[in-house]
Amino acid sequence: MECRRIIVVTGSVGAGKTTLSRELARILRCRYINLGDYLISRGLTAGIDRRRKSIIVKEGNIMDELKKEDCLIIETIYPNLLSGISPDLVIVLKCDPEELYRRLKDRYDAEKIIENVEADVIDTFTIESINTFGDDKIMEIDTTNTTLEDEVKLVLSALNGSVKLPIFLNRGLDIYIKLNSIRRMLLGHS
């Protein structure tokens, strides 16, 4: 049986993927999957990249079992691994670099923070999502100053067609300047 609804939620660590994904799963009565945890629990990883503190994924189609679900919310930092599906909506969560730094500073070392802030700033998750799914189902949401309720309303509006997709943010050069400031601060350069 094909899935009736698949929603992919991606973005940098600390952007709010888990919170939004779990709330959408509750409201829409869907199964919630954290793709990283799913891959580990199914033995679909080839190991851990200790330097980057991330999993190494085995090659192959990981979606066969998931395609059997009626409704699925997939949280991932690996949108490119989901090329075997056709989601109804791909949500890319974004966050101001300074706020993302604040969210991550107590959880990760400087290298991991820089990696995640840079990935957000250079639109890694948006680009990977477009390359994997096309651009017509993409919705970027800036979580810097939004509430969970606001984010859910935006998503539900996209699902019911009252908001036209795609939705892309244009954050400009000021974001890059903030990134460089964070890099200098974390690496001890003035």
How is the topology of this model organized?
Layout: E1 5-11, H1 17-28, E2 31-34, H2 35-41, E3 45-49, E4 54-57, E5 71-76, E6 89-94, H3 97-104, H4 110-121, H5 124-133, E7 138-142, H6 148-159, H7 173-187
Parallel strand pairs: 1-5, 1-6, 2-5, 6-7
Antiparallel strand pairs: 3-4
Helix pairs in contact: 3-4, 4-7
Largest sheet descriptor:
5 strands, parallel
Distance between the termini: 58 Å
CATH architecture: 3-Layer(aba) Sandwich
Estimate the strand proportion: 15-25%
Overall average pLDDT: 85
Plain-language structure description:
The structure is a single chain. The protein is an alpha/beta fold. The chain has a single domain (5-187), classed as 3-Layer(aba) Sandwich (Rossmann fold), CATH 3.40.50. It is 40% helix and 19% strand. It is built from seven helices and seven strands, in the order E-H-E-H-E-E-E-E-H-H-H-E-H-H. The chain has helices at residues 17-28, 35-41, 97-104, 110-121, 124-133, 148-159, 173-187; strands at residues 5-11, 31-34, 45-49, 54-57, 71-76, 89-94, 138-142. The strands form two sheets. A five-stranded parallel beta sheet has the order 2-5-1-6-7, sandwiched between helices. Strands 3-4 form a two-stranded antiparallel sheet. Helix 3 runs antiparallel to helix 4 (110-121) and helix 4 (110-121) runs antiparallel to helix 7 (173-187). The longest helix is centred in the C-terminal third of the chain and has 15 residues, at 173-187. It is globular, with a radius of gyration of 17 Å. The chain starts with a strand and ends with a helix.
